[in-house]
Design a protein that fits this description.
With 724 residues, the chain is an alpha/beta fold. The chain contains 26 helices and 13 strands. It is globular, with a radius of gyration of 28 Å. InterPro entries: Cellulose_synth, Nucleotide-diphossugar_trans.
């Protein structure tokens, strides 16, 4: 009777559906009234309208672009669902399918090796039959130090994994578990456990010191050269410590460094994942694959069993390609001024996507079916292989040699890898493009968000690294949006139209946001500076249209942040602020980068996110203080917008004092623009504070302020000439 029970349940959030759809209808009607108001202006007779048409056209275009972005985003809210799994109902261990775990690292200078090793160890400690678990580390730097550190990690894991199994340790990351004062739910509190834990702390400290010593003595100059030009290196780590101990069953651990040559494009992370796909196919060929970032450790050892609740349920469609878990981070502050948590995506959008076809592939923390990536190609290449145990025999040496060929940079020449097979190339956001390709083919996906985070990593906690990361993401998205792979061109094929809107909205979002937000940041202000009204008088009934749209948008975002996802008011404020900042910086530069790449004027580049924590910067982040020690290209646009808004308000108040005495009610016609400038200044007070009030090292440099002042004067002068 137990086996007939479902392994998972899906529940639609009826209350959220009613709220979301009701608001969508209401807001859409308000937008239609806005469009009617704007269009009616252009049909007025020249005698009744003395206002220049150009500023109205520009602000109307900004309103239309932002409205289009909003309309497409409603697909995320159309049918939010939540899932529950019952891993205790899974079949016996001998009936479970095997799993390959892919961990990717690219730059030991930006990705601390100790963190990488902790991620590998946590994967080895997963609650899954060890003979059915295989862990592969892809080292794109080809660093000998990483290989040596991996052997040290394996040595420690032969003690750590049995310790976790014996005492039911839930947190599989030794660095986090052993340094935490919190009591794990699985801990035994007897003297035997305490003694074992103390021994484990000592062994971990020894391993950590050895790893740090290896890293300190590596040749950095040689590493930078070797990382771009080296042969393929594949080694199975299976040597047990020499000291007496009972050998326990351990998962397979394999080090993989694909061949790199300057004359061959290595296709970034997607290329590394495809090499792991081929190498693992020759060695273990597990039907399911878990993909992890190098800093994203397994925080719950049962994630594999939870994912198998979808794949092993006979009542579930076999078309599920991947199970996506949220990305959660352990270094998020209460204020989270940079939205490092990416809260809206993993707490709101992905639940909505799950109800209309499945979430988008999200970089890491997903279990994916090998068949979905390989399709019929698996029968030609790697499906003939069966899972192998590595021994010292001739067959093992032959297998490793074959694996090295599969990891060579020339193997993919004249093949369908990256275009039809495996993880997709073309864009640096291989996750979005691969997920889109799978969904178009008819594959589905599910989103599982348990109460306990299954994976925990570290996010960017300073303004510069956050901006660099988001610029790269936006560039990759726009690269797809302006190509033949744009969702608007490719068409739904086997996708639902609502699901298609989700992909279209995400692809067009950077372009729509940067164009519309720059319009709202400058056009009304330039008109305010020159006394040109763009909105109805405050007592005009048409003014209610804009008021309703503004209040409607604010209210809905407050509901999603505070009510739906349990956030605080300051989180809502911070998210709105960073959204505006990224629109005029990251979205702008990302879109420009993609356009230049399309024109052949710039090559696609990929720089791994710096995961090294700067203590001083992190303290500022914890205090909720902006660190403006970022590239000028990210800070100058923010200061420029602030200065333009200040100039517009000052000029407006001067004009009010000079004109309003005549009784023509000048101020009534400019209330909308005055409010918009005031709103931008209040919401972005952190920038104003960094310019004027703060004098610490993380404030905005005077040189940047002066440069921005030059830009502001130029915008005011040129804009006034064009718009007036």
């Amino acid at each position: 009777m137990e086996k007939s029970l479902p392994l998972h349940l899906l529940q639609a959030n009826s209350f959220a559906i009613i709220i979301n759809r009701s608001h969508a209808i209401f807001h859409f009607i308000a937008i239609l009234f806005l469009i009617h108001y704007r269009l009616s202006f252009f049909f007025r007779s020249p005698e009744t309208s003395t206002i220049n048409t150009l500023p109205w056209l520009l602000i109307f275009a900004s309103e239309l672009l932002l409205s289009l972005s909003w309309l497409l985003s409603q697909s995320y809210h159309w049918r939010p669902v939540y899932r529950t799994v019952f891993p205790e109902r899974l079949p016996d261990d001998d009936e479970l399918p095997s799993i390959d775990v892919f961990v990717c690292t690219a730059d030991p200078n930006k990705e601390p090796t100790v963190e990488v090793m902790n991620t590998v160890i946590s994967a080895l400690a997963m609650d899954y039959p060890p003979e059915k678990l295989h862990v592969y580390l892809s080292d794109d730097a080809g660093s000998d130090a990483t290989l040596r550190c991996m052997k040290e990690a394996w040595n420690f894991a032969t003690y750590w994994v049995p310790f976790c199994r014996k005492y039911g340790i839930v947190t599989g990351c030794p660095e986090v578990y052993l340094s935490s004062s919190e009591v794990d739910n699985g801990e035994f509190k007897d003297s035997e456990f305490k003694a074992e834990k103390e021994k484990m702390e000592q062994k971990y400290e020894v391993m950590k010191q050895r790893v740090m010593k290896i890293v300190q003595h590596r040749d950095v100059v040689a590493l930078n050269t070797y990382s771009r030009d080296h042969p393929s290196i594949i080694e199975v780590i299976n040597e047990y410590p020499k000291e007496e101990m009972q050998q326990v069953k351990m998962p397979q651990l394999v080090y993989v460094s694909r061949e790199k040559r300057p004359s061959h494009h290595h296709n970034f992370k997607a290329g590394a994942l495809n090499v792991l796909l081929r190498v693992s196919g020759a060695m273990s060929n597990s039907p399911y694959i878990l993909v992890l970032d190098c800093d994203m450790y397994c925080n719950d050892p049962t994630s594999a069993r939870q994912a198998m609740c979808f794949y092993c349920d006979p009542q579930t469609s076999p078309s599920i390609a991947f199970v996506q878990f949220p990305q959660t981070f352990r270094n998020i502050s209460e204020d989270d001024i940079y939205d490092s948590e990416i809260r809206s995506i993993f707490k709101i959008y992905w639940h909505g996507l799950d109800g209309v076809g499945g979430p988008i592939l999200s970089g890491c923390n997903f279990y994916i079916k090998r068949e979905a990536l390989l399709g019929n190609f698996s029968k030609e290449e790697v499906e003939g292989h069966v899972p192998n145990s590595i021994t010292d025999g001739e067959s093992s040496r032959m297998m490793l040699e074959e694996a090295k060929v599969l990891a060579s940079c020339s193997y993919e020449n004249q093949t369908a890898w990256g275009s039809e097979v495996g993880f997709m190339y073309f864009s640096v956001v291989e996750d979005y493009f691969t997920g889109f390709t799978l969904h178009r083919k008819g594959w589905k996906s599910v989103y599982l968000c348990p109460k306990r985070p299954q994976f925990l990593g570290t996010s960017t906690t300073n303004f510069h690294e956050s901006s660099v990361q988001w610029t790269r993401w936006r560039a990759g998205i726009v690269q797809i949006a302006i190509s033949r792979f744009c969702p608007l061109i490719c068409g739904p094929l086997k996708m639902s139209w609502v699901h298609f809107m989700c992909y279209s909205g995400l692809a067009l979002e950077p372009l729509l946001h940067c164009l519309s937000l720059w319009g709202f940041a400058l056009i009304p202000q330039l008109c305010l500076f020159n006394g040109i009204p763009l909105y109805p008088k405050v007592l005009d009934p048409n003014f209610n249209i804009f008021s309703i749209i503004f209040v409607s948008a604010i209210s809905k975002s407050l509901y999603e942040t505070v009510v739906a996802s349990g956030g605080e008011l300051r989180i809502w404020r911070n998210e709105w602020r960073i959204w505006m900042m990224r629109a005029v910086t990251c979205c702008t530069y990302g879109s420009l980068d993609a356009v230049l790449n399309k024109l052949g004027m710039k090559e696609t580049s990929f720089f791994p996110t710096n995961k090294v924590t700067d203590d001083e910067q992190f303290k500022l982040y914890e205090k909720g203080v902006f660190d403006f020690r970022a590239a000028t290209m990210f800070v100058a646009p923010l200061v420029t917008v602030i200065l333009v808004n200040i100039a517009a308000l000052v000029r407006h108040f001067v004009r009010v004092l000079a004109v309003d005495d005549d009784g023509d009610g000048y101020w009534e016609t400019m209330v909308g623009q005055m409010f918009l400038s005031f709103y931008i200044l209040v919401l972005n007070y952190a920038v104003l504070e960094g310019m004027v009030i703060r004098r610490d090292k993380a404030s905005i440099p005077l040189s940047v302020t002066l440069l921005s002042a030059v830009f502001s004067v130029f915008i005011l002068l040129v804009g006034s000439v064009i718009l007036c």
